[in-house]
Design goal:
Thiol Ester Dehydrase, Chain A, six-stranded antiparallel sheet, alpha+beta
Length: 159
């Protein structure tokens, strides 16, 4: 689908826990916005972990015919952010404050899909540290990533 604006809208429901929001997103699949434009969707989540896939298309190419590194970085950010999101309660939000990417192997455009698996490795109520791996369909490791996610408390009526 070239026109990602035709995808269904999806909004963060502050009355639900982060895990409930993740499950709602999984049920919808591709949604409008940045993730839909990249053809990225969540496929699985549980408390402290998430898996996302990206359907690779020609528009994901860099100038040398490989999947652009920014696609893999975005995939890490979304998977890690969602893994952290599964830990928050209603009204709370998340924000990526640091993202680290290590490109290990190129991903040729011929791959049909990239998968990111992310897991929370540290959590103290204010922040979560997540590790992520991006692989191709054969299981080849493309990227190792890490994200520091701020867990933000629910807003009060004054704030």
């Amino acid at each position: 689908m070239d026109d990602h604006t035709r995808l269904p809208a999806f909004h963060f429901d502050r009355t639900k826990s982060g895990l409930e929001v993740a499950q709602d997103w999984i049920a919808r699949g591709y949604v409008s916005g940045f993730s839909g434009a990249l053809r990225v969707k969540p496929v699985w989540a549980e408390r402290g972990a998430a898996r996302f896939t990206c359907a690779i298309e020609s528009r994901h190419s860099n100038f040398v015919g490989l999947v652009h590194g920014g696609v893999a970085a975005a995939l890490v950010d979304m998977a890690a952010g969602t893994a952290a999101m599964t830990l928050i309660g209603p009204g709370e939000t998340i924000l990526t404050v640091d993202l680290s990417i290590r490109y290990l192997n190129p991903a040729p455009l011929a791959v049909e899909e990239l998968t990111a698996n992310a897991v929370v490795t540290y959590h103290d109520g204010r922040k979560a540290i997540c590790d992520a791996k991006v692989t191709d369909p054969k299981g080849n490791l493309i990227v190792l990533g890490a994200a520091h996610i701020a867990l933000r408390p629910a807003r009060t009526k004054e704030g």
